Amino acid sequence: MNDTKTALVTGANKGIGFAIAEGLGAIGFTVAVGARDEIRRKEAVERLRAAGVDAFGVALDVTSDDSVAAAAATIEQTAGRLDVLVNNAGISGRTDGGAQDPTTLDLDVVRTVLDTNVFGVVRVTNAMLPLLRRATSPRIVNMSSNMGSLTLQTGPIMAAYAPSKSLLNSVTTQYARRLADTNIIVNAACPGYVATDFTGFNAPRTPEQGAAIAIRLATLPDDGPRGGFFDDDGVVPW
C-alpha cells in the first residue's frame, strides 16, 4: 500500500466542496471527487488536474444505497484505503410558498433535505468506514452550518434546512462517541457564509475561506479534538 493519502469529498464538483478538494490536493492528497452529475464531475477533475492535483472522479449520489456502495468499491479498487472523508454534499431545499416556514412547513421538503444532509452522511460514512479503518490517521469531517446551532439561532428561518444541520451535529457526536477508542477522528465544521450558488453568490466569504476549517479538521494530529463543532474562530456552540 502506498504512502499517498486519499480523501473523498462529496459534492466536490463546485463551491466549497471543490475548494476543499483543491486545498487537500495542494497539500499532497489524492482526491476522489464525489459528485452525481457526470459532466460536472469530469470538469472538476480536469480543473483539479490542471492545478496539479492528483484527482479522480467517483460517481456518487448520497441518496442512493447502490450508488454509495459502488463509490466505496471504486475507491477501494483505486486507492485501497481512505484517509479522509469530507461529507460536504448538502442541499438547502425549496423555500417557495412557505415551504420552510414552520407554520406552513412542507414535510416532503423536510424529507428531501434530510435524505441528503443527514441520511446521506450516514450512508456514505458507513460505507467508507471499512476503508477508513485501513488508514493510520483517518479523519471524518461533516460540513454543517451555524444555522443548526440551537444556541445561536442564526440565519433566515428555514425549518427544513436548519434542523437538518442540528441533526447532523447530533449524529456527528454519536459517531465520535462510538469511535472514541479508535484512531478515527470525527468533527463537524461550519464554513461560514460563503458566496456559492447555495447563497446566490451573495455572501462575504470565498469558497477557499469556507474550505479552510474543513482542511484543518481533515489534517488534525492524532491527539486532536473529537466530536466537536468548529469554525475559523474555534468552537461553535451547539
TrEMBL record:
Family, as annotated: Belongs to the short-chain dehydrogenases/reductases (SDR) family.
Domain of life: Bacteria
Annotated signal sequence range: none
Residues in Ketoreductase domain copies: 5-192
Gene Ontology molecular function: oxidoreductase activity, acting on the CH-OH group of donors, NAD or NADP as acceptor
Species: Prauserella muralis
Name of the molecule in the record: Dehydrogenase
UniProt keywords, alphabetically: NADP, Oxidoreductase
